[in-house]
Amino acid sequence: MLEQASDLAEDQEFEEALLVYDKILKSDPKNISAMLDKAATLQRLGKNSQSFQLYDSVLKEDPKNLDALIGKGTLLHSKSKFIDAINCYDSALKINSRHAMALACKGISLGELGKLDDALSCFKKALVIDKDYDLANIGKQKALELLKSKKSKK
Q: What is the pLDDT of residues 68-124, one digit of tens each?
């Protein structure tokens, strides 16, 4: 059933996917995979408070769950709570220092805070891990552009 729900979400049949996730969670309330996938689906629908609750529930069960830490971080970022988001990414990086997504997401939040050199460092580390990671490539280019324009204004 989890695969069915994931397929529905991939096909952007979000409401139907949520119904399947609910069935799974009714029979197995602590199914971490279903909780994470449902949280991500809710996030895609903009139902951030429900998504946030699910990520927190996962983290209560499994405090080192990388997907929940990064998902929670992206939600915090979307609410402009960049420092809190960075804390989530840092927690993920303490568990796996070579997690490209955590590094790239941290870079984006750092960039929002104007810490462009630190952001660039995160993007470069992410690209060492995965040279084709789009999020890190785009972030790196944007940080370089901003740094260049900052220096030309001096």
A: 999 999 999 999 999 999 999 999 999 999 999 999 999 999 999 999 999 999 999
Q: How far apart, in whole angstroms, are the C-alpha atoms of residue 73 and residue 45?
A: 17
DSSP state for residue 104 in the 8-state scheme: H
Q: What is the DSSP string of 34-98?
A: HHHHHHHHHHHTT-HHHHHHHHHHHHHH-TT-HHHHHHHHHHHHHTT-HHHHHHHHHHHHHH-TT
Assess if residue 75 is contained within a domain.
Answer: no
Q: Are residues 89 and 148 in the same domain?
A: yes
Q: In the structure encoding, which two tokens stand for residue 61, read together?
A: 């069960």
Which pair of structure tokens corresponds to residue 8?
Answer: 């529905």
Task: State how far the Cα of 33 lies from the Cα of 39, in Å rounded to an integer.
Answer: 10
pTM: 0.91
Does 48 fall in a domain? Answer: yes
